[in-house]
Design goal:
The complex is a heterodimer.
Chain A (H helix, E strand, L loop, with lengths): L18 E9 L5 E7 L6 E6 L3 E6 L1 E8 L5 E8 L4 E7 L9 H6 L42 E4 L5 E4 L13 E5 L4 E7 L15 E6 L6 E6 L18 E12 L2 E7 L4 H10 L2 H4 L3 H12 L6 H13 L5 H10 L4 H13 L7 H14 L5 H15 L8 H14 L10 E5 L3 H5 L2 H5 L9
Parallel strand pairs in A: 1-7, 10-14
Antiparallel strand pairs in A: 1-4, 2-3, 2-5, 5-6, 8-11, 9-10, 11-12, 12-13, 13-16, 14-15
Chain B lengths: L2 E4 L8 E8 L11 H16 L8 E9 L24 H8 L9 H5 L6 E7 L2 E4 L2 E5 L16 E3 H7 L7 E7 L33 E6 L16 H10 L4 E2 L9 E3 L3 H10 L13 E4 L4 E3 L5 E8 L8 E6 L6 E5 L6 E6 L2 E8 L7 E6 L5 E5 L1
Parallel strand pairs in B: 2-3, 2-4, 4-8, 8-9, 14-20
Antiparallel strand pairs in B: 1-3, 5-6, 6-7, 9-12, 10-11, 11-13, 14-17, 15-16, 15-18, 18-19
The chains are: A alpha+beta, B alpha/beta.
């Protein structure tokens, strides 16, 4: 087989006398970072992470080509002639959207990438903030245990709104931002927590958002998981709260003409999620060392972002790096987080002694399915794949919990938007609550009847 | 079963391919897909004639092909396999072609499982659907009749199939799926199976070592994939072009050899479209992975990359003769006379000099020296 690929490492060769210095910079502080491949006239190509601050790299004299792979999937290429002992600045200007408020989204998400001719930016495009036409409503009966707020947002005109959510602060201490760019239709937007136990000590956070176009046929609902609160994982901002944005936009291809996406504005993990989403392992691998370090810090309780640790664990799975110590910690320390159990089971299933760990794999996957919807799409895929394997083992043949969990995972799979970064479900409105509250709840639901 | 290529004698690690092209759906009200049959034929030919991976040479190619109906001009030769009858792409033939893992089986799954270091490759071109993360590939006998108890009995559940492939001993697996991923409105409320699994998972008989599996899709979720009335599908055309050079990279080879890795295609295909090398843009439906894994898939024997040469301002192209030569000016690679557009020339990975000489002899000659590297080179003569 091919050797395991050494992705993400800087060239270990010591600087040579005929080297010059290349100073690479990403000119978009909002985006934070992106992976780049550097090819010089001699030597092996290498992959680095480029951020807002210039990154100095010794390269051999001659023609140097730098490919910057944006998290959205776009490839930018620049070249420079390097003189021996010289210094060259190379700045990648990333400003594809033409809309200030979409600068981040258009770079980290393929869904918001501008296509076709580059739009003309207008300095007069100002952010509007309005008080929406909202009203409190009664939550659906099945949700009363978990929901306190239903905010009905009315929109008018093709404007963009940052919507202040009129929440009861005693219940929700932390909420994501809601940004809506819409047309003339009414939406019902609901923040709630579908988890049976709370991820924060004081229990005040919203972990899912439901969007329902009103008066649309067929009646479909979009529901996205929100990894919140999100704390920064890198640099001087480590552990500071980061913006998590729920972006709602009128789009012809969306459900009822509206689409919704949850965007995490973390300069380190945001691009990694995007790279994993597009399958660009070469670029995601450039962040491996940083994410491994962050996840180990979590193990020692030095950082407090289990969502980011789960993303790190998904990345390590793709890069075939075993991380059993901290994935087990993630699962046991944060039992409310389905992705913890899923990613630990996935690491175990890739290990050589997986047969001897089958009981642990089973418990991790079943408990994850019973916890509810995974926060990341990779989790939905791996939950289904892992349970499918476990259910096929002679050891767990006929295990009712495994069978129930697998049916739940398959129902989730067929409702999950594959291109989203955070798990986003599209289902007929009357069936949403069958899926939201885990495998045990699902087994008693109408949706379970006839599910494969 | 139609094995159109078999290495002789087999032995050692090898790539075993199963290629499917469905160019006609008699019971499906969607238009036929002549480009699907042509694309499958082209992909199988590429494997036989150009695939190169010294550590894992081509072991076998099995082909299922449903050509489009014969039109007034007679059969389309590019949508048929010459000199050999090929089984049609029905679901039963697919199940038979995959075969069993049991000793004595001569199906694709058994061949692919003959060595842990094999590569198992599946190529499919035809109609497809997607609901959530679950994809369904439709075979020739797919029947869209809504009164059927199981509308997807003649379809493949790609997601379950890929999960079941965990049983295959080949630890490198590559799926290239050229099919739509759209979601018809009636599927929102549909709660049944989306196709046959074909390979059921069996944990107890799975290989110990982890596998690397990449599933490359021709289009984004919920989007359509596009064919060509007279040529190949857009995705397959771009994929085959990229395999011969533009998708190669030297990032991970200690000797600087140019290799095509399994996880590099989407960005390369986008780059080729965005620079005008491909005569279309992917729009909202770029090729992407369902899941990706990283391994060397192909080593182009004589890689070439497109070099795009243009004068700046572009209006000067109308008055300039362009040529590509080696840096010493001794070997001319190609020339082009005055024209309105940029010039695209496929060049080996060599140092070159691009020159513009103007019809009006008074204008100074312009020249730029470069090294051709994938995925493509943009040269502006100012």
């Amino acid at each position: 087989m091919s050797p395991t690929f050494p992705k993400g490492s800087l060239d270990p060769d010591p600087p040579q006398s005929n080297d010059g210095t290349l100073k690479l910079r990403l000119d978009n502080s909002a985006v934070g970072s992106a992976a780049a491949i550097i090819r010089s006239g001699s030597g092996v190509a290498r992959t680095v992470v480029v951020r807002g601050d210039p990154l100095s790299i010794p390269v051999a004299a001659g023609e140097v080509t730098v490919e910057m792979q944006l998290p959205s999937g776009e490839l930018l290429v620049q070249r420079v002639d390097m003189r021996a002992g010289g210094e060259e600045d190379l700045t990648f200007e990333v400003d594809p959207s033409g809309k200030d408020w979409l600068r981040w989204q258009s770079v980290v998400s393929p869904n918001w990438r501008p296509r076709g001719p580059k739009p003309v930016r207008s300095s007069r495009q100002k952010q509007r903030s309005i008080v929406p036409d909202f009203s409190y409503e009664e939550p659906p009966p099945a949700w009363r245990e978990r929901i306190r707020e239903v905010v009905r947002v009315g929109l008018s005109g093709k404007k963009r709104y940052d919507v202040p959510i009129p929440v009861d602060k005693d219940y929700f201490a932390l909420l994501p931002d809601l940004t809506v760019e819409g047309d003339e239709r009414a939406l019902s937007v609901t923040f709630f927590s579908p988890l049976s136990s709370s991820p924060t000590p004081h229990g005040k956070t919203a972990l899912a958002v439901r969007l329902q176009p009103i008066d649309d046929e067929p009646a479909l609902t979009v529901c996205a998981m929100i990894p919140s609160p999100w704390r920064s994982t890198w640099g001087p901002e480590t552990d500071q709260p980061q913006r998590v944005q729920v972006l709602v936009q009128a789009q012809p291809t969306g459900v009822g003409g509206v689409s919704m996406e949850v965007i995490i504005q973390d300069k380190q993990v945001g691009p990694v999620l995007a790279y994993l989403g597009t399958g660009d392992l070469g670029s995601a691998g450039a962040y491996a060392d940083d994410l491994q370090h962050m996840a180990r810090e979590l193990l020692w309780e030095k950082v407090a972002n289990p969502f980011a640790a789960a993303v790190g664990a998904y990345l390590m799975l793709r890069l075939e790096v075993s991380e059993l110590s901290w994935t087990e910690h993630l699962w046991r320390r944060f039992p409310w987080l389905p992705d913890g159990g899923i990613v630990h089971a996935a690491h175990l299933l890739r290990s050589a002694n997986r047969s001897s760990n089958l009981d642990v794999v089973r418990d991790a996957l079943v408990s994850a399915a019973q916890s509810g919807v995974p926060f990341f799409v990779d989790g939905v895929r791996r939950l289904t794949a892992g349970l499918s394997q476990i259910a096929s083992s002679s050891r767990f043949k006929g295990d009712a919990e495994v069978i129930g969990a697998l049916r739940y995972a398959r129902a989730l799979s067929s409702a999950t938007m594959p291109q989203a970064q955070c798990t986003t479900l599209i289902v007929p409105s009357e069936r949403l609550d069958d899926l939201l509250f885990g495998a045990t709840h699902f087994s008693n639901s109408q949706l379970a009847v006839g599910a494969p | 079963m139609t094995v159109v290529y078999a290495a002789n004698p087999p032995g050692g690690p090898a790539l075993h391919a199963l290629v499917v092209g469905v160019g006609h759906y008699p019971k499906f009200p969607e238009p036929g897909l002549p480009s699907a049959a042509r694309s499958a034929v082209a992909f199988a030919k590429w494997l036989i004639e150009e695939f190169n991976l010294p550590s894992t040479p081509l072991g076998s190619v099995e082909l299922l092909l449903t050509p489009p109906p014969v039109g007034p001009e007679g059969p389309d030769p590019s949508a048929r396999w010459a000199n050999q009858a090929v089984d049609p792409a029905t679901i039963d033939n697919f199940v038979a072609a995959v075969g069993e893992l049991t000793p004595g089986s001569n199906g694709w799954l058994h061949r692919a499982s003959s060595h842990e270091d094999n590569i198992a490759l599946v190529y499919f071109c035809g109609h497809g659907l997607q609901k959530g993360t679950v994809s369904s590939l439709l075979f020739q006998d797919f029947d869209a009749n809504p009164l059927l108890a199981n509308r997807f009995s003649n379809a493949l559940n790609l997601s379950s199939f890929a999960e079941g492939m965990e049983r295959c001993l080949a630890r490198r697996q590559f799926f290239a799926i050229d099919a739509c991923r759209s979601l018809p409105s009636w599927l929102y409320g549909y709660n049944g199976s989306l196709g046959q699994d074909v390979i059921a998972p069996d944990f107890d008989s799975q290989p110990v070592n982890p596998r690397r599996c990449a599933v490359l899709r021709s289009t984004a979720p919920s989007q359509a994939s596009y064919g060509d009335p007279v040529g190949l599908s857009r995705f397959t055309q771009a994929l085959l072009y990229a395999l011969n050079g533009p998708a190669a990279n030297d990032r991970f080879n200690p000797h600087g050899e140019w290799e095509v890795w399994s996880d590099d295609f989407p960005k390369v295909l986008e780059r080729l479209a965005n620079t005008g090398v491909l005569p279309w843009r992917w729009g909202a439906s770029p090729p992407m992975y369902d899941v990706s894994a990283s391994f060397v898939l192909h080593v182009p024997r004589d890689p070439k990359v497109p070099v795009l040469v243009t004068c700046n301002p572009p209006a000067d192209n109308l008055h300039a003769s362009l040529r590509l030569v080696d840096p010493l000016g001794e070997t001319e690679f190609g020339t082009r006379g005055p024209a309105a557009s940029q010039w695209v020339y496929d060049l080996k990975l060599v140092e070159f000099c691009a020159e513009a000489a103007f019809v009006n002899g008074n204008a100074p000659r312009r020249s730029v020296a470069r090294r051709a590297i994938p995925p493509c080179m943009l040269v502006s003569l100012e």
